[in-house]
Amino acid sequence: MKIRIKLTICLLCMISALPLHAQNDPDISALKAGQTDPTLVSAREDGRQISTYAAVHDVLAATQPECAYHEGMSSREFRRWRKSLRKAMSSVMGVPSPVTTDYTRRTSRRHQRALPACFRFSAEQPSPVMVSSEPREGYTLQKWEFFPLPGVVSEFLVMVPDGADASDRRPAFLCIPGSGVPKEIIAGEPCRYDDPDLRREFRPKSMMALDLVREGYIAVCVDNAATGAAADHEEAWENDDVTPSRLLLELGWNWLGYTSYLDMQVLQWMKTRPEIRRDRIVISGFSLGTEPMMVIGTLDPDVYAFVYNDFLCHTQERALVMTALKADGRRPFPNSIRHLIPEYWRYFNFPDVVASLAPRPVILTEGGLDRDFELLRDAYRTAGAPEAVSCNHYAKYADPSDRAGLDPLPGGVDAQTFFHLANVDTRNHYFKYELVLPWLKEIL
């Protein structure tokens, strides 16, 4: 019962992405683009800050990411910029000495040279092992184990449509779930944290891998670090990632770097499979899963296309404007410790990273600021593939007149106001199969 109650609360909160009492859109009529949070304005004549928070906030506001995309680049400048961003991404992920498996030796020499040093494979580990295979209606569900580090085992699921083999190779998807969601849920399978009462409501909007395999594609499902089978113990099913994230940071690594490292291992395995079209591998990230999707996409040029199922924002701007004091007088931080990546803002924000994926196809399904969408369109035009980026708003904000259109965003707002200003309909955050599946038919 205790686990069921926890699961109910976690999933409902994840669906809404806001406190459960937040029902109505905030009143933004008094807000102006770029207005400053008055509580962060120095009262001194010289403008100097005595508050540590205010001082650091000013430093953050003055920080210009070194690898930010600038509209109007030439094709040559774009390629040079993309290379610099890729190098910076490799650095901030903080992956330690390269360790991987013997099966990666079968990847091409060209690919090995293309990977950053931290993702090249040298120390030998066993190849992945299939531990079970069960028939389902129209496909087979396989469970695999892989061995990314000495003393470490991890899992992934493979959903293979009937008829897919070396003679009928299929496009394949690396499916990365959202926060607190085990891989079994996106595959439509029971898991040890399962609640049958929630399955009917929650799963139809989260079974990305099941949607894909039913379309005839191969779907590979992974767990995020510290989630599902990777959780510390059964009571920690709800994504107890605070302590492992802290330990990783103390080691000079980080949660996203570790998760991306695991997912990269699975991706390299996918390239060796005879039933998979190596030139048609797509990464599909839902919510939190968009972050490792961006990392892997930046570092691995072999990935064909990307499904970005979340809203797009400048995380630096989000931290700068979400400064409204809480009831206890504290300032909020927009994300948890698993999002803490030292030096990330020194180099880029999410729109810059997505822009670096050009000219490879990408679909964004859940809105963001029109300003950021325009940046992506410019990058894809520069890369010679303007048709390869598909930017979509939530239905609530599909009409431009329903979008606030404030740029830059005003400071001193709370989470609910930020999401509204960023054109995010938090209560309709789900895998947008109605957008993704038709798009895939076009590009594949």
Quick rundown:
The chain is of the alpha/beta class and 444 residues long. It has a single domain (2-18, 32-41, 49-443), classed as Rossmann fold, CATH 3.40.50.
Protein architecture, described:
It is a single chain. By secondary structure, the protein is of the alpha/beta class. It has a single domain, classed as 3-Layer(aba) Sandwich (Rossmann fold), CATH 3.40.50. It has 16 helices and nine strands. A nine-stranded mixed sheet has the order 1-2-3-5-4-6-7-8-9, with helices on both faces. Strand 1 and strand 2 form a beta hairpin. The longest helix has 19 residues. It is globular and about 75 Å long.
Based on the structure given, which CATH architecture is correct?
A: 3-Layer(aba) Sandwich
3D shape:
globular
User: Strand fraction band?
Assistant: 5-15%
By DSSP, the count of extended strands is 9
Spatial extent as radius of gyration? 22 Å
CATH class: Alpha Beta
Spell out the blueprint of helices and strands.
Blueprint: H1 2-16, H2 52-62, H3 75-93, H4 109-114, E1 129-136, E2 139-146, E3 154-161, E4 170-176, H5 183-186, H6 196-202, H7 208-214, E5 218-222, H8 242-250, H9 255-270, E6 276-286, H10 290-299, E7 305-309, H11 315-321, H12 344-347, H13 350-355, E8 362-364, H14 370-382, E9 389-391, H15 415-421, H16 433-443
Parallel strand pairs: 4-5, 4-6, 6-7, 7-8, 8-9
Antiparallel strand pairs: 1-2, 2-3, 3-5
Helix pairs in contact: 9-10
